[in-house]
Every structure is written in structure tokens, then in C-alpha cells.
Write a structure and sequence with these properties.
77% of the residues lie in helices and 0% in strands. The chain is mainly α. Helix 1 packs across helix 15. The N and C termini lie close together (9 Å). The N terminus is likely disordered.
Length: 337
């Protein structure tokens, strides 16, 4: 009986992140947001708007959207502020900030193609950290799916590179190329996997966190971090202090800001009800949609890489969601009883 219960628990854990219509809709919403975001920013984002103002505004709207969803779903009375939970949300918030700094450092010493290719390893690191945080293993088919995901990432990144600088490694010293280019982006990928897995372990704990409340806490901490840098005059902080927060904005700038906030809230739900790996598949599907919108909006011809990547993403997602890991020893023992 004990083994049957253990097997049942193992199967429950496997199904905890299984694909469902609800998760499918969330992934589709996130993919559409990611796919359309570059065009929304290009046409409505306000070319002179500061990056910090856009990020802070997006985080503010994440808070607004999350509160609205708490009200609509009648969960507001079920959540309460906890300093412990708030501080725990600071871990991924700080990690994401450091990650962005590392990516910025790397992009100054590597071409965009190399940065994007190395950065796709974050999904592999996510799967590794998910195992260490919550003990969720990957089945053989899921490992195949992860490799397919990595392959599609390479195809999408390579196909999206319109121009690549001629051997960036030759234009800078070997030490700069390695320690300021390759090492930072590898560390950023590891940190991305860590933060995603940490968030999943928090949202899928025995006493699970409310994803909307978690999004609110992350947004508040992000605003605090960026706000402190602005007040210190770091980056575009001096421009904001001199010209104002909304300098460079247009009446339409709020459109991409709100859609980006919707994407952030969707990520929280996907990580809670599916997992950080599934979020990675949604991001990949979003890149495919970017290619589709590029054809429709800009009139560009789709590359063979993007055409090939689409079925790989779909099949990979199907394999990963359909064949979760279940302890084979417990499974066989339960059958024999």
C-alpha cells in the first residue's frame, strides 16, 4: 500500500506540470505577445522613450493587471502580504537584474547571433535546476524534446540573423572575447535557469504561492531596483531626472507597455500550472510568430530556417507534455500488486 501511495504521489508530481487546455491558451497568449512585441515597440513604443521608463511602467501595469485578476477571480481575500514571501520574491528579481547586466556586457563583446545561440542553453539549465529544487526529473522523451527545442532555437536564431559581424573574435583580444563575451552570457543563461526554477518551486510548493501575488511582489522589487538606479543617475537615470519620466513617449506608447505586462503575468501563470520549461517552448513559438508577423506586416520572405523550426517546436512541445517522467520501479511495483 505504501508503494502504491508513493507511486500515486510520483504520478501526481508528473501530471502536476502536464499540458492542459488552460495552459495551452496561456502559452498561445504569451507566444502571440512575444511575437507581436517587436512590432508594437517599433510602431508605437516611442523611439525617444527611455528604457527605464518603459520597464517601470510595464512593471506598474503588471501590478494593476494582477490586482484586477485577483478581483475578477475572487482571490483577493485569499492573499495577504508576508514579508517572508516578499523577500523570497526578491531572489529571482535580483537574479534577473544581474542577468540583464551580464547580457548587456556580453552583447558589447560578441555578435548578436553568438549571444542568442548561447543564451538558448537556459532551458537546459532550467530543467537541471527544476530537478534540484523540486526533484522533477525529465523522461527520455522529454530530453529528446529539450534537444529539439535547442535545435529549433539554433534555427530561429541563425535564420533571424540578417547580418553578422565578421568573426568578432578577431576584432578584440582573446581574453576580452572569452571573459567579457562568452563567460557573461553563459552565466546569464545559468542564472535564467536558476531564477525560473526557483520561481517554479515557489509557485508549485506544498503550500503554493498565488501567481498574481507573486507577480505583484516581483514587479514591486523590480521598480525599487530600477528606481534606485534612476535616482542615482545611473544609465538613463540622469535623462529621466532632467527631462522627465514620460520624455519621448507618445499617446500610443502605453500599448506595448501594457502588452509586455500581460506577457509577464502570463509567464507567472504558465510557470505555476506547467513549468519553466514549458514557458521556454512558448517563447520559441513566439519567435515563430515573429517570423509570421514579419511576413504579414513587413512583407519579408520567411527563411527556410523558420519554416523548418515551426514543426520542430510543435512536435517538441507535444513530446515534452505527453511523456512526463514517472519512477519506473514504483510503476512496476504498483502493477504487480
Amino acid at each position: 500500500l505504501e508503494e502504491e501511495l508513493t507511486y500515486s504521489s510520483s504520478l501526481k508530481m508528473a501530471k502536476k506540470t502536464a499540458f492542459s487546455p488552460f495552459v495551452g491558451v496561456l502559452m498561445l497568449v504569451l507566444a502571440l505577445q512575444i511575437g507581436s512585441q517587436p512590432f508594437l515597440m517599433k510602431y508605437y513604443g516611442g523611439k525617444a522613450a527611455t528604457k527605464s521608463s518603459l520597464i517601470v511602467a510595464s512593471e506598474f501595469f503588471k501590478i494593476v493587471i494582477s490586482i484586477i485578476m485577483l478581483l475578477v477571480t475572487k482571490q483577493l481575500s485569499e492573499v495577504h502580504f508576508s514579508l517572508k514571501n516578499f523577500l523570497s520574491a526578491g531572489v529571482p528579481a535580483i537574479v534577473f537584474t544581474v542577468q540583464n547586466f551580464l547580457i548587456l556586457t556580453s552583447t558589447r563583446h560578441l555578435d548578436g547571433l553568438t549571444v542568442n545561440l548561447i543564451n538558448q542553453t537556459k532551458t537546459i539549465f532550467s530543467a537541471i535546476f527544476v530537478y534540484f529544487f523540486i526533484g522533477l526529473k525529465q523522461s527520455k522523451m522529454q530530453i529528446v524534446a529539450l534537444l529539439m527545442m535547442l535545435l529549433s532555437s539554433v534555427l530561429l536564431t541563425y535564420g533571424g540573423a540578417s547580418s553578422v559581424s565578421k568573426n568578432t573574435k578577431d576584432s578584440i583580444s582573446l581574453d576580452d572575447w572569452l571573459f567579457y563575451g562568452v563567460v557573461p552570457i553563459v552565466l546569464a543563461s545559468i542564472l535564467s535557469g536558476f531564477a525560473g526554477a526557483y520561481s517554479q518551486s515557489t509557485l508549485q510548493a506544498e503550500i503554493p504561492r498565488n501567481s498574481f501575488m507573486f507577480s505583484i511582489e516581483l514587479a514591486i522589487i523590480s521598480i525599487m531596483i530600477i528606481g534606485s538606479s534612476v535616482l542615482s543617475g545611473v544609465g538613463d537615470g540622469k535623462q529621466i531626472l532632467n527631462m522627465g519620466f514620460f520624455e519621448g513617449w507618445t499617446m500610443w506608447t502605453a500599448v506595448p507597455v501594457v502588452t509586455n505586462a500581460l506577457g509577464g503575468v502570463s509567464i507567472g501563470l504558465i510557470v505555476k500550472f506547467a513549468g519553466v520549461v514549458e514557458k521556454g517552448f512558448a517563447v520559441l513559438l513566439g519567435l515563430v510568430f515573429t517570423g509570421v508577423f514579419d511576413v504579414i506586416i513587413e512583407g519579408h520572405t520567411p527563411t527556410i530556417f523558420k519554416i523548418v523550426a515551426l514543426p520542430i517546436v510543435i512536435v517538441g512541445l507535444y513530446l515534452h507534455s505527453s511523456y512526463p517522467y514517472v519512477n519506473p520501479t514504483l510503476k512496476e511495483s504498483a502493477k504487480n500488486r
